[in-house]
Amino acid sequence: MEILSSTSNIALIVIGFGLLIAIHEFGHFIAARWAGIRVESFAVGMGPTVLAYRRGLGVRFGSTAPDIKTRYGAEPEKIPTAELHADGVGETEYSLRLLPIGGFVRMKGQEDMDPTATNHAIDGYGSKPVWKRMIVVSAGVFLNMVTAVILFVVAFMVGVKFEAPMIGAVRADSPAARARGLNGVANGLMPGDQIDSINGEPMTTFADIQIGAAMSHPNDQFILQVTRAGVPTPLQFEIDPIKDTTSGLRSFGVTPARSATLADNQEIAPVIENMLVTSGLAAMGVKPGSTLTAINGVAVMNAQALDLAFAQSNGKPISTTWSLAHISNTPALNPSLGSATTPPDMLVTLSLSAEPKFEQLFATDSKSSGEYDLGLIGFSPLVRIDFIQKTSPNIGILQVGDIVLAIQDRSGPRLGEFRSLIQTYANRSVQLQILRAGQTLSINARVDSQGRLDVMVGPAWNVLISARVIDRVLENPLDLQSTQTVPTPIASLELRSLTKIISINDIPLTDWASMRDALWVTTADAFATNSPATLNISFENMQPNSPVKSAVITVGAAEINTLQKLGWSSPLPSDLFQPQMITRSAGGNPLLAATMGFTETKKLAVLTWLTLDRLARGTVGVEQLRGPVGIVQVGTRVADRGIMYLLFFLAMISVNLAVLNFLPLPIVDGGLFLFLLYEGCFGRPPSVRFQNAASLLGLAFLGSLFVITFYNDVVRLFTGG
């Protein structure tokens, strides 16, 4: 479960969401008063009344209706407005309800769920001309759109930071990796490419790129215009997005670009600190927030340069230079000036070793999750405890370096299995068999309420013992419709988990890196001729007195091609660095800010309608929808990014409220507007029977939508989605 960031952030979002609803209802309220319609109630929220105010009576806990009934002997709506005003009492009750999930304005003679509740009194809803009622019904939507424009204008006047429309990493075999270059350009997008437009539509943020892919249709053709460093003219690519197995949305298969500064947020700081210790950078003073300034003496501007340097290193060390200016914000005293001055950046240089890459093995049991295991020819490493959080209930029970041999009766769980199995023991103890300093131990680890040990785990690359072996892998893991599998080279051996690999073609092995080297050497000739290779592999099981066995395996040409091209990676992956940000700002120009505000409002309104279209077409799933809980969950993250981004987020919600309220569905403003349009055209409203049936259908649809979104929100809340 992802803990919402803070009570203050939650309060900010709940208050902001409530204000947007109040603004919507205020639009109906002022329009009704303008039209001469009596407003019985103005409520923010739904459910029981918590606080209420009525002119002449003041504030009450609960409704003011009992006071009116006691004084006049009838319900408030039965008392004539003139009689109430004569006593200095207002006809409208303003209330705050228990559940912050909506709001309403109740007008005299107008009930969304009861078309028969009409009232043709002079101050009743039904007595007013159709055109006035149309204004009343649509006023809430109009005010939400105006509010969105105002919030956007304020945000753009100051400036809002977004992730830049620049590519960080390109997933192997993704649509981006296969993008067809036009006009003689080589195929494939590259890290550092800036996407300027999609089908002529400008891309101002990375979110625009994600939305462009998510809103695409399988029959659409996408042309990307790209700016690439060192290339004087823009490039063009044709790309076909596919549905991502993790997000459930259509995607290009790219991640946002990262700056050269290590992230310093609390969520991943322990991960970074652990990697800095392992690499030796921590001893030099490098911390989260430090900035990479040069690689092999050449200045760099982003983290992708580090990934690229190691990818091209052929396994050789890379010299890195880091700025430690962040370690001190205190001005230093300059004796010659006799005043405080900012100290110069402190630079340190250290060589980093390249990390060998391993195969991505999509086992048949990973089809639904879209996850994969790392390994070689069907072998996959055990799980190692890399870091123990300070808040972990397993301090003193687990130790850094422990290798998990079994969870309860499941022997040799792979990394993905380890996480899912541990979750099933939430709020309980789980028996782990571990390897510690060469000894096998059995311990009882504690799992917290969120199904976590509160430790960081990774592959045990230092110990050449396989977890549960993988006999078959998906042939086309990116094709969600395909179920075709192929055997791994070791499938015929029918090995158990906890198999120790000893040698390949009599080359002794010590760890996974040495196994990769041995496979590379022994398959080099076959790779040159694009033919299979026959290898002799020696192995034994970890169980006592297990004999050493040898077997001959055949490694196919396709597998050899994968092995020979594995390459090298950085010990500090680029996703540990801060995102590359841009600031969208009007530069203090109010006219430009207003233009940007109107443009953003229009874009989001169209996007909301487009989302509904894609839901109908099936390219966006209902599991992607969010309700009030989800809005609060996302909003708390947004609040951490600053007040301007919070205003931008609330503006987006305001546009969504406007569009969704004006859908052509009964019981929302759009459906009521259609009924009025019918009445204006034919001189009479739709039949009561039709209105009742339509209202019930609309209520059923919205009720189902609420249940689905609430379920999605709760699942995301407990799974960290």
Please give a structural write-up:
By secondary structure, the chain is an alpha+beta fold. The chain folds into 4 domains: 19-36 and 127-159 and 587-721, no CATH class; 167-257, Roll (Pdz3 Domain), CATH 2.30.42; 259-356, Pdz3 Domain; 363-568, Pdz3 Domain (Roll), CATH 2.30.42.10. It has 16 helices and 39 strands. The strands form 13 sheets. Strands 24, 25, 26, 27, 28 and 29 form a 6-stranded antiparallel sheet that branches. The model is unreliable at 1-5, 326-343 and 711-721 (pLDDT under 50).
Structure in a nutshell:
The protein is of the alpha+beta class. It has four domains: 19-36 and 127-159 and 587-721, no CATH class; 167-257, Pdz3 Domain (Roll), CATH 2.30.42; 259-356, Roll (Pdz3 Domain); 363-568, PDZ domain (Pdz3 Domain, Roll), CATH 2.30.42.
